[in-house]
Amino acid sequence: MSKVSGFPVHSHKADIPRRNAPPDQGLTSEEARVRYVGGYANLPVEPPSKTSRQIVLGHVLTYFNLIFFILALSVILVGRWWQMGFMVIAVTNTICGIIQEFNAKRVMDKMQFLSSPKGNVIRDGQERVLNTSQLVLDDIVVFRSGNQIYADAIVVEGEVQVSEALITGEADEITKGPGSFLLSGSFVLNGKCHARLERVGADSYVSKLSLEAKRAEKEKDTPMVQSLNRVLLFAGIAILPIGILQVINQTSLHGGNLSEGVVRTVAIVVGMIPDGLFLLATAALAVSVVHLARRRVLVQRMRCIETLARVDVLCVDKTGTITENKMTVKDIVLLTEDRFVEDDIRMIMSDYVGNMSADNDTMTAMHRYFQGTVMQKAEKVLPFSSVRKYGGVSYAEDETYLLGAPEFILGDQYSAHKETIEHYSALGCRVLLLALYDGSLDDAVLAAPIMPLALILLTNKIRKEAAETFAYFEQQGVTIKVISGDNPVTVSHVAREAGIIGAEHYIDATALETPQAIFEAVRNYTVFGRVRPEQKRLFVRALKAQGHTVAMTGDGVNDVLALKDADCSIAMASGSDVACRVSQLVLLNSNFAAMPSVVDEGRRVINNIERSASLFLVRNIFSLFLALITLFAVLPIPINPNQMSLVGGLTIGIPGFILALEPNFKRIQGRFLQNVIFNALPAALTNVILVSGIIIYSTVFNLTAEEMGTMSLVVLSAVGILMVFKVSQPFNLLRRALFIGVVAAMLLSFFIPQLQAVFSISPLGLEAFLILAIFVFTTYPLMWGIRYWLERLAEKWTAFQGRERRKLPWQRGE
Known about the structure:
This protein is α/β, with parallel strands linked by helices. The strands form three sheets. An eight-stranded mixed beta sheet has the order 8-21-20-19-9-16-18-17, sandwiched between helices. Strands 1, 2, 3, 4, 5, 6 and 7 form a seven-stranded antiparallel beta sheet that branches. A six-stranded antiparallel beta sheet has the order 10-15-14-13-12-11. Mean pLDDT is about 85; it is low at about 1-10, about 215-220 and about 805-814.
């Protein structure tokens, strides 16, 4: 017994004695309880999602809410509190955002609880499966192939091959036997061991690394979020100087009336605030998380939804994606019938599988098929490795058997059996070679004589929905790349059967020895066989270097490095722990057929945010331009805060949020911010031109401020209604009802006396009415004309860029 040492002891922890429990007994339940209560549990260093307090504060304590508060206080101080209609919208936006994120948090927490990482632990002499957060210091745990090591531990029994690639970047296999230290964050490639937990929770290596990484590097924003942040930053910087100068300008224009100057300035500043834009994106993503959860898809990083919508290359494995996970042994093909008959092979294989743990699909299939009595206990076992491509058992110096990929075992002898092997590979069989090896399992290179005994043929049934799923991706312009450790001929056959376009173009990855070769191969081939785990990562990097947005699906430890590097990573819940932990999305039903609906959900969100964002930017762009024009031309601002809130609420806020939840599965094209600005500019510039005309007309003909405000409100409403009409195309029942509702609500606001008073709507004389009619009838042709010229400019700019790209560097002045 010794006291806790070798790692920091937090002040809140009880001082407890260490215990080296026997591997077959572990801690007692009481000992585990004492450690858990004493602060020695393997609890995560931070909650998996935001706390309720963080959600509320994140929505309430924002820069723009501070601006709203200052504007509201200003209006109150000048005695015009009834012009605070904008605060109703600001508060409503904040409450809606909190509710949506709470709803998403509830769903995500439930999903994460159901899929929370589990660990095998020995307690009271029995092996149990518990959440890793329930494990404690000194627990005896069991690690097997595919498990992620969730706490620092020391091996006490057994042997495993681990990879520390996720924490060190090195992809080498490291053998760990009794006394070896297991770093949390690494994962088991092969083997099985019992280990004692040494550092848990915040004291573990991976927890400290995670905290340091979080402090040092912020998660990279997606293109849409980057665009929104740029808009928010620009607006945040522009608001203060424009607001201060406008107070001075408007007060002077209104004969030194500070109250009127503040109210007019508040109206234009409220219009410049893009508060609803960010809320729109947050709410739409939160709703998307809920939609995906209903389809049994766990979203572990919310922003990956946008990335998924932009994916144009999808990398998949054969097993578990194209085919079902369950593998079956189909047949045995004898290679030395004069010395070994089928019964001999069955006996050898029964001994072989009896000495191997069923820690992967292949070995599980072998265990089901070769169920003979185990006659020999192996002196040494070499588990299958995705790097070596073979495993083996040794019973004595002259009896060592190898099982694995024929070309890796046979080497120069492969050509003698190539025709037979590729015949079965072309039928879609996974072909393994059983061979007698006259050397040692420790040999780095198989240089000793090898006697091929038999081929073991295995098959996976192609998923019945595979063809339909891949046809969907073909229609959507998503290129499929099949990356597998199997023989490329086998993989190509299976891919063709599943209807993958270009599956006849395959290559053996063992021939790809340089980055340049990989770069060219991923451009020209569809199917890649005999791929090593580190090559999968290089394939993903090469595709990204070519400008593609890459998604990767995987379920095994050999997929982890590639999943980590992909733009969007998707894991099957039935796969290894570590693949699920590093992926952004987890298919809880492990059904690849769910992928079309996942991609559709991503596209729905981004398309709708883009469409609705154009509504919000109409007001922001108009307000910015009008603020600058009235400031430098020394003109009055024609509208007040309530009028701006009316237009914003009925033609922007309500339609924007309703349209953001509509089905919309078209392909993502172009850049988010460019698309949004291009769609918003015609309406925004129409507003600027017409409202500026109204200001000049009112100034020249001495209209009252109320008349000028009413005329401006009518024009802004007309342009807003036209914009709602445009973004609602094509009409369906909901969008038609939305459009009619917006028009009806706007008309009621103009004709109900009580609302007229709230929104400062005053009657117009005949002359003013006729001029207003001209302005209103001008809205559509003016908006159409601006859009026409913008499209022509965009076409010329695109043509110019194309010509520039075709020039040589020195012709571009580089």
